[in-house]
Amino acid sequence: MFSLKTMFFDKSWTDIKETTLRINFVSISLQLLMAITLTVGLAGFLTMGTDLWDGVIVSHAVSLERPDIYHEWFSEAGLFFTPYIYDAVYIFHEIINYETLAKLFTVLFLILSALEVGHIASRYFEIPRQIKFYTAILFYLSPAWVLYYSNIYLMHSLTLFATLICTRYLLDRKALALCLPLLLLSFQQSSNAPLSISLILLSCLYQHPHTKDRLINAGLIIFITAGFFALRKIFPTYGLYATYNEIHLKNIFNIGSYLKLTKYYAILYLPSLAAACLALYYRREKKTFYLFSILFLGILFNGVAYIAVNKVPGVSEIGLMHGESLRFTFTSTVFAVLLLPAIWQSLAHMPRLRYLALASILIHACAINIYAHEGKMKEVLFQRGLISELKGLAPLPYCAINIRSKGVGTLTNYEYGDIFYRAYGDTNQLPLGDSKDPIFDMKELYGKFTKESYKKKYFMPAQMPNCIVDMNISTSVGKWNAGKTFAKYLSGKGDSIVTVSISEMSRP
To answer: Which residues form the signal peptide (predicted)?
Structure first.
């Protein structure tokens, strides 16, 4: 029986030729697995033919040719630059389908962000090109990016890339006049500011040991911090979003939130943590301990922006049909995937162990990614099925539609509104998600959303309906296995997925 030390240190355990063959086999197998995983993901992104979550608001505004709707929305949320990102796509919506074009740009900037993460890995670690590539792939495979099934994340994809490349140029002391203002614009996603700061701090430790460089970096951090809060002051939230993303200091010191964030990353990157523990066991050096401590602190530091507004990712949402909390991990993921090159570097004297670690990390990442895609595909399938079923029904009356679901979670009112709009081409019904008191909820909605643009934004009829219809929805899509899900999804068909029954109309 061999010990780990014998297996991974004793060169007589097997000959070099056999080791090389095994490594090549592992490499080819990993590349094939990643190719399959990436193909499934891209097929899911680019063939959905619908939108999810907040993305339906922009999609609806584009279909109405009312960019003022999303301009007002983002402005109220303090996102002064974001509407112009969508304007760039809106300009071409009559030539290329908006949803397809938004998807292409989202995936493009995600790929560019992954390449930048690869540059970061090679900047701080002594690794071959192969590990740089695998680090970029590991970043791309994060289940957080599966949220990009909603086109609302085009903004996040673009600004994350802008943050990474601008920070790299600042650290290289290049194009400062261009990158500093662009970096501020990238703070439309608030968590990008801590990401930029943490990368600068990492450079102070590993690349900029001289006092002059550290003073420049300190100046950059001050500029970023001051610029972030200045922008929040100049472009405050107002209207419907008056209290949106309010920062509370008590949240920052909530230990429970950090433990939840740690739990998420412990599950998501379990093989990386196990390999890191082995590296610490066999390389009992302060340098190795400091390296992994810095990366772990980087993960937590990049979670502060979300924790400050009391938003923490839910582990259970990784494979669920609904849920958007994984967006709270976008920037922490940069530091989480840096565990891979750190492990590779730390296990330099244990070649077999580090190849085993590499294989385990990437296989686990592929499995999680497929699982996450399966969940979102089921959500798209449910929407396709409901749209198909609604088209086959007799036209619904112009009432409030109180929706009760079985086998699927309750959507937001505006997600139901988008489904009805795609089925009927109008907004004459008011969908309500399993309301206990429809009359009260209708009055509250029309009391809150008084402006015409608000009603258009949230798929509301101009006048409050004076009747109520109960709709029961049932589906088994949530119980489908992966094979059935992928086959049905790629077929593009939406029939025989959802059953709908309608009650008699009632009046208040």
So the answer is: none
DSSP 396: P
What SS3 state is found at 468?
strand
What local confidence, expressed as pLDDT, does residue 247 receive?
A: 78
Position 53 in a domain:
yes
- Which strands sit side by side in the sheet containing 400-406, from one edge to the other? 430-433, 400-406, 468-475, 498-502
DSSP 8-state assignment for residue 506: B
Indicate whether 408 and 347 sit together in one domain: no
The pairs formed by 11-20 with CB atoms below 8 angstroms and a separation of 24 or more are 19/351, 19/352
Amino acid occupying residue 77: A
Q: Which domain holds residue 427?
A: 377-502
pLDDT tens, residue by residue, 40-50: 888 888 888 88
Split at pLDDT 50, 70, 90, the class of 14 is very low
The sign of the dihedral angle between the CA atoms of 146, 318, 139, 483 is negative
* Statement to judge: residues 452 and 464 lie in one domain: yes
380-399 residue pLDDT tens: 999 999 999 999 888 888 99
Please tell me whether residue 354 adopts helix, strand or coil conformation.
helix
Residue 173 neighbours by CB distance under 10 Å:
9
Handedness of CA 290, 296, 299, 301 (dihedral sign): negative
Q: Are residues 105 and 184 in the same domain?
A: yes
Hunting for tokens 């600042």 — which residue is that? 170
Residues 75 and 138 in one domain: yes
Neighbouring C-alpha atoms within 13 Å toward the C-beta of 102: 29
| Range 44-81 burial, b when 16+ CB lie within 10 A, else e | bbeebebbbbbbbbbbbbbeeeebebbbbbbbbbbbeb
